[in-house]
Amino acid sequence: MISALATLAMxxxxxAHATMYGVWVNGEDQGDGRNVYIRTPPNNSPVKDLASxxxxxxxxxxxxxxxxxxxxxxDTLSFEWQHxxxxxxxxxxxxQGPIITWVAAFTEDDGTGPIxxxxxxxxFDGTQWAVDKIKANNGKQDFTIPAxxxxxxxxxxxxxxxxxxxxxxxxxxxxxxxxxxxxxxxxEVSGDGDAVPDQGFDFNVDxxxxxxxxxxxxxxxxxxxxIPGPEVWSAExxxxxxxxxxxxxxxxxxxxxxxxxxxxPSAPVESTPAPSITTLSTVxxxxxxxxxxxxxxxxxxxxxxxxxxxxxxxxxxRKSKRxxxxxxASRMA
Length: 333
Prior knowledge:
Blueprint: H1 2-15, E1 19-25, E2 28-32, H2 54-57, E3 69-72, E4 76-82, E5 99-105, E6 117-122, H3 130-136, E7 140-144, E8 152-162, E9 179-190, H4 203-206, H5 243-247, H6 249-253, H7 263-271, H8 273-297, H9 302-332
Parallel strand pairs: 3-9
Antiparallel strand pairs: 1-2, 1-4, 4-7, 5-6, 5-8, 8-9
């Protein structure tokens, strides 16, 4: 009797679980994506251990799907959840909780590590949980690809967190704890955006049992619920690695303070005066040389006078001799 009840409880619990079936792009069904463009787990069981790599993309997280969904930045995506197959009960109504959507650059591994950025979230709006809404919307949870998202291949991860047993942490009682239903979808995004997701969220490190959005009493709370993880990424153009690269070039121009060359030109300028001094001294020499000949030329004027005075003396002496002879002759006579 006890085993029968246990089996029934297990069956009803399994019946309550969920898995992702496919994706819609702007209202167009992309078909059954399980093991096609979704890294689909082997069953719809939850993950509860925050240290497990399965927390990120589920049990087959490292099994790359063969295809990608094509979508453009700004498109509306609808991730469709079901219990096992399309148009079934989706998930049990008792599994209330938030639905959170993340993005990371495409990777072929299991998605672990600080690579994730939150792009959408829906928790408790005061009257309804996000799980209530997907049940009313045929299993679909809509969100918009950020219009500024840079083109490329990505993993989009969406998770349902069921809080019907999360009043106790899994680490304290593995039979209880929050139930995580993660699923990773391969999407190739087109467009001309330049925003690169940059939150660097690591599920195995940043989700903790101290988080009030993970250890949470669904049946006794004040009507407010803090969704775990960071704020939704603003996705502004150039906000992530692009802004930094554009800043990186600036340091390259800064090194142009190798205006060390400037001192070099100034040094030569100082040596320029030296040659100019040499030129001046050269000019001075010729000037003095010209002056000296001029001084020598001055004495040439008295030189002619000296000979003229000598001639006059000779003429006078000759006259005096003649007159002396004349006087002697007259005496003899």
